[in-house]
Amino acid sequence: MESLLLTIGFIGLALAVLTPLTKVASLVTLASFTLYFYVIGIENWIPLALFILGLLLIVFEIFIPEFGIAGIIGAILLIAGLYWTVGDVIQTVRDLSIAVVFTTGLVAYLAKKGYSLTNVNKLVLQTDVPSSSDDKEKKP
């Protein structure tokens, strides 16, 4: 049950980033991760904070891929948050592996269908600055 909720959460996150279904997928992600931590039964907020910070750093790494260290730290924090919640290395690795495999399959399928990060281009400033060679060509 826990691995299914975690998988649904990661799939919702991928759909929120790659498709126009941002609002619905974000709600599914939020509900799934909330149910995951509710079913597991967290005793304090530290594992949840580690998990959320890890997810945010991984998403940051997706938008700014040159940085590198953010994704590594994000993955470590995400795994630490899950391990601290579950308390078992084998179950943590199993749940996370299932979620990552299914999410990777979905991302590959969506990429094949033509979806990409272009849906989030409205977050990025796009400017067209003409080069100096273009100005010289236009003058008579």
TrEMBL record:
Domain called NfeD integral membrane: residue spans: 2-108
Organism domain of life: Bacteria
GO terms for biological process, alphabetical: proteolysis
UniProt feature coiled coil, ranges: none
Positions of transmembrane segments: 36-60, 67-86
Pfam family, one: NfeD_membrane
Gene Ontology molecular function: any one: peptidase activity
Keywords for the protein's UniProt record, in alphabetical order: Hydrolase, Membrane, Protease, Transmembrane, Transmembrane helix
GO cellular component, one term: plasma membrane
Protein name, per record: Putative membrane-bound ClpP family protease
Source organism of the structure: Tetragenococcus muriaticus PMC-11-5
